[in-house]
Amino acid sequence: MANGSDAERSGVGDAKPAALAANGSGAPAAPAAGPPVSPPPIQEAVSKPGRTSRSGVTATVLGVLLSLIIKSALDHTFESVSHYHSLGQIWEAFLNAPTSKILALLQLLVFLFTVVRFYVGAYRYAESTSGGGIPEAIATVVGTFLLFAGFYIASLALRNTVVFYLAVIAFHSIDFVWFFIVQKLLRVPRDVGCVVGIWQVLDGVTIALLLLCLWFLPSTSSQLAGLGALLGVGVADLVWLRHFYLDVPNWAAKTWLVSRNLGTSA
Question: What is the C-alpha to C-alpha distance for residues 239 and 217, in angstroms, rounded to an integer?
Answer without folding.
Answer: 29
